[in-house]
Amino acid sequence: MQTLLQVYFRMPIFFRLLSSVLLLMMFFGISIHILEPEHFPTIFDGIWWAFVTGSTVGYGDYVPLSSSGRLVAILLILAGGGLVTFYMATISAGTIKHERDLSKGLVKYRGKDHIILVGWNERTKQLMEMIVERDMRKQIVLIDHTMNNLPYQKHQLHFVRGSAFEDETLEKANLKQAKYAVVTADPSKKELQADQATILTAVAIKGNNPEITLITEILTKDQIKNASRAGADSIIRSNDFMSTLIFHELFRHKPVKPFELLIQVLADQQFHQFPLPEELDDKTFLQCADYYAVSEQLLIGIMRDEQMLVNPSFSTKLQRGDTLIVLSSLHE
C-alpha cells in the first residue's frame, strides 16, 4: 500500500487527478449497481451514470429511486462534481502555463535532426524566413539570452532562453540530436568580444555533440584559426564578404549591381562540389562545362591542391583529384 501511495504522489498532477476521477466514478458506479441492481443491471451502467451525474451533464437515462441510491447520488454530486471541475480547471491552467513557458523559452525541445540558431538578430530572422518560405521542412530551435519572450511566432520555431555556452541550455535545445548549429556574431558587442563569445559557444557545442555540423560567423581575421580549432566546420567571414561586395560596388560597370545580383543568385541557386568524374579526366574546362550544361548546371570553377580556381581558362585541363564547383537550382 505504501509503495502504491508513493507511486501515486510521484505521478504528474494531470495523471493523479485523472486516476482519482476514474477511481471515484468506478466506486460510485459499482455502489449504485449493488444498491439498485434492477435499475442499474450492469456495472457499466452504474459507471456510465456516475460519469454523467458527476460531470453535471445529467442525461436522465438512469435515475436512482431508493433512498440509499439517492444518498449515493448526493455524495457523488458533492465529491465527483467538484473533482471533475478541478480536473478540467487544472488542464486549462496547465495548457495556458505551457504556452506561456513556450513563449518564454523554458520548455525543452523533444525533436531531432533540427537546426539550432544561436542569437536572435536580423541575420537569423531572415535565415529562418528563407527556410520556411522554401518549405525546407526543418524544425528550428533558437537560443538567445537577451529576450524574455519570443515576439516572432512560427510553427517551425522553438525558443530556448539562455546562454549557448551553458550545458543546461544546450540540453534544453536537445543539442545531442540536432543536425546543424549556426552561431552568429553578437551585434551588441565589439568585434573581438563577439568573436570570443562565438568561439566559446563553438567549444561548448562541439564538446556536447562532436558530430554536429557547426557554422560560425567570425568578424576578425585573427580569430579564424581559433574558430577552426574550436571545431567549426564552416566559418563565415562576414566582414571579408561585405568588404569585397563594397569594393565591387565602388568599381562596378553600370548598370550591373553586384550586391543585388549576388543576393539573387544565392536566393535561387546553390553551390555544389563534385569529385571529377572518370570520363572527364584530362578534358578541358570547356568540355566539362558543356557536360554539366546538359543537366542545366553551371560549372564555375575547380578546387585543386586546396586552391580554388574560379572561371579558369577554357583550355585548362582537368586532372584526377580535382573537385568541381557547380551552381544549380536550389530546388534540384
UniProtKB/TrEMBL annotation:
Localization in the cell: Cell membrane
Record-level GO cellular component terms: plasma membrane
SUPFAM superfamilies (alphabetical): NAD(P)-binding Rossmann-fold domains, TrkA C-terminal domain-like, Voltage-gated potassium channels
Domain RCK N-terminal: 112-236
InterPro entries: K_chnl_dom, NAD(P)-bd_dom_sf, RCK_C_sf, RCK_N, Trk_Ktr_HKT_K-transport
Keywords attached to this entry: Ion channel, Ion transport, Membrane, Transmembrane, Transmembrane helix, Transport
Membrane-related topology note: Multi-pass membrane protein
GO biological process: monoatomic ion transmembrane transport; potassium ion transport
Keyword Nucleus annotated: no
Spans through the membrane: 13-35, 47-65, 71-96
Protein name: Voltage-gated potassium channel
